[in-house]
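no rush on this but wanted to send it before i forget. theres a chain ive been looking at and ive put its sequence and its fold in token form underneath. please have a look and point out which stretches look like helix strand or loop to you. thanks a lot i owe you, the record is right below:
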Amino acid sequence: MARTQALPVLACAFAVLQLVRQTGLLFSGAGTSRSLRQSSPRRSLTALRAEEGSAGSGSDRVQLKVLSPEGLGVTEAVSEVVLPSASGQLGVLANHAPMMTALDIGVLRYKQAGQWKPLVVMGGFASVDSNQLSILVNDFEKVEDIDLDAAKKDMDSATSALEKADSKKVKLDATQSVKRAAARVQAAMFGQKK
């Protein structure tokens, strides 16, 4: 029951975070010149940043922050991130345009010091703005905490449960279990390739 309530709570927290971030910038006028603010009141904050060039535009790094209901998960300066978005894989590099997306269960990969590192995420939301990638997830698991043999057994049992599912509810739950197990196996195998 607590897991099903976590997604709406995360969504609200993320919306509040974005609202505070945007209104704080709008009220303080951070990153915009006085002449630009007065010249066209209908211009968006994003357009003003693009015209002026944001402070981090010369940077080749993205500040990655992964947060869960239990607290801070990962905070790293990375060169590239590949997200398991709800509509497919999504890559984020430095100076990415501002955006927000829903995340699916899957493997988030980030490149740090030339090496890819996987992280299993259990759905959530991601927001990119000014070389800051903030990710709010329902839960996550680091590759060091995953045992490949146990993950494969979980995958087999989840697949078996999906095949035996007789109602829509049971089938939906089994599908989510298969996604989680597949992501754990994928991350563990990725971690062993190092």
